Amino acid sequence: MNEACAIRSPKEEGSSSVDAGHTFAILLAGLFAIAAGLVGSVALMKRMVLASDVMSHLALPGLGIAYLLKTNPLVGGGATLFLGTLLVWQLQKKTELATDASIGVVFAACLGIGALVTPNEDLLEALFGNFQKLSLPGFLLGTAAVILVAAFLAGMKDRLILDLFSPELAAATGVKVSLLDLGFMLVFSLTILVGLRFMGGLLSSALIIIPAATARQLTGRMAQFVVLASAVSFISVAVGFLISTLILKTSMVGPTIVIVSVLLFVLSLLKKK
Amino acid sequence: MVLHELSFEIYSGDCLAIIGPNGAGKTVLLKALQHLIPYQGEIHWSQEARLGYVPQTVAADRELPLRVQELLAAKARVLHLADQEMDQVSSELNLSPEFLDAGIGTLSGGQFQKVLIAFALLGRPNVLLFDEPTASLDELTEERIYELVHQLQTQKGITLILVSHDLSVVYRYASRVLCLSKNKVCMGPPKEIMTPETLEELYGALPKYYRHLQEL
Domain B15-58+125-214 falls in which CATH fold? Predict the structure, then answer.
């Protein structure tokens, strides 16, 4: 027992002092939470929650390769995430029939390849994330990504509504439905990428799905729903972060955040619609 | 291939009814006319044509947290329409504030159809494509819809392309009829097309409507 404590303490020395790197990381985690709520509410209405869950796993092989080559994990994760998104988009366009099956195959393949190529010591971090300092350029890039996500959703709001109601009538109104879908999936992947480092490849999509499901229980108004999803997501990150750093004293914040969001979902079930 | 060797013209202000048995490709034709599905051949619309489409039905998600008002407003914004256009369509179709505030998942089949018609009328289309628009409406509402459409047609010179199984409606409103079936395509004024011989050939049997029609 004493040994375990001794191993952990040097890490804590570094993390106890709150410097700019940590502030950046905390701020970006908050921004990610808001973006995840926005994207998640649309994904839930588009009924592509399961597909989007798999999309986050697309980052795993890339993460593994990046760890192996000792380069920035986000570059590798982003690369396979982007390619995978295009693949899923094509699959969805071509075959509506085998979506379930192809999702299952892609999920298993990504997890397998990811686990195989990732060095053992990095595997836990790749899967479940790790809270760590963030450089200023990293913070700025992340912030730009979140702004892009929010701007896309705000700008495409009306087209998305028509597409949600009926892709056919949206097309008849002049909306380029397939491109809109691609745009949304790219924005989705971008959100995953922002959260990838501290939530990991397995959990980063959880924050997109669970808060949206919670918010949907609480309201039947679309505008309220979207705002509420972001709020629930933000609360999950904040509370999860505080519990894991102050009480559990671990830098692996993802699992706690997910559990907090699940608890909020369970609470939401108590409310009658 | 559903349709082939089909060629026809429709003039501004016409009311073209498309009739034929199930599976003849009536809906496919309406979709192709709007470039919603791939097709071979050529479709030319006049520069001024603005299409409005009322599909037979829409597989809308009943769980979607969307109100009638929000749906119509979204289309109005996509097309950059003036605010009064929404009010105008609402009053033309007698849409009450309560109706506009209702969630689309709570509507009955007929109410839902009304939303689809309101949706199509937004943007002042001068060509309306109706795919059995009144299939799920009660007779009174159906009557009102056709009266409205007829009114739009006579007052504003709207062109109408109408798919209908209701031959009395076709007889009453259509200026021309296009009949589609696996082995026959024909086109002409209702009086010429809707003869016992053609209808029997088209549907395989004489529709029971026909006797009724003769009395009109």
Answer: Rossmann fold (3.40.50)
